[in-house]
Amino acid sequence: YLGRAAILEMHFQDWAAVRRDLDRAFALEPNNPRVMAALAFALSWQGRVPEAIEAYERVLDVDPLRENALTSLAYLWLYAGRYPDARRALARAQELNAQSVFAQLLLGELELLEGRPDASLAVFEKIEDEAFRLYGIAIAQHSRRDRARSDAALRELIAKNSADAAYQVAAVYAWRGENDRAFEWLERARVQRDGGLLSLLTDSIVRPLQADPRWRPFVEKV
């Protein structure tokens, strides 16, 4: 049930079926931290941030060494503006897994959100995953007011990863305030069934789009 829910979630966005499978998995094993984390993630992509935070905290009560729960909690704390909590969670996650790309990505975003674009860039430049590295460099360079380098990273991201990172391209445009291009790439991500759309309601980088009148119709379409 848990495996099928993951497939339905990431590749088919069949939300009702996902929830049925997760509820069934939870009924079978209510204290299984993998099931608990999957339910917390479902709350997250529904935009139910306070409930998702509480759910991940319960996961960590059962399994305090669960690194992906720590990074997911840090991600939600970023969105909630709880930056010191996010930093502590990311530090602990990196103690458990120094190679966590997600933790590195979130640390770069945290530095950016706290107004330290130089520190953010230094973090992003060390990420091994090329798409996430280029995405991070593009947003950090924009905040450093280096348009040329931001454009260069974005062009490379599009050239190399338009088929599998359309959501990240949209996020760059959102951060740069280029809403028309952001919604164009969000629609592309929707057509491609990009898993990044599961972050739509809790992503601090695309949050500026929420003031755009196109936001709610797009969310409803997704």
Structure description:
The protein is mostly helical and 222 residues long. 72% of the residues lie in helices and 0% in strands. The protein has 13 helices and no strands. The protein has helices at 2-12, 15-28, 33-45, 49-62, 67-79, 83-96, 101-113, 117-124, 130-143, 147-161, 166-175, 179-191, 215-221. Helix 2 (15-28) runs antiparallel to helix 3, helix 8 (117-124) runs antiparallel to helix 9 and helix 11 (166-175) runs antiparallel to helix 12 (179-191). The radius of gyration is 17 Å and the shape is globular. It starts with a helix and ends with a helix.
Give a short synopsis of this structure.
The protein is mostly helical and 222 residues long. It has helices spanning 2-12, 15-28, 33-45, 49-62, 67-79, 83-96, 101-113, 117-124, 130-143, 147-161, 166-175, 179-191, 215-221. It is built from 13 helices and no strands.
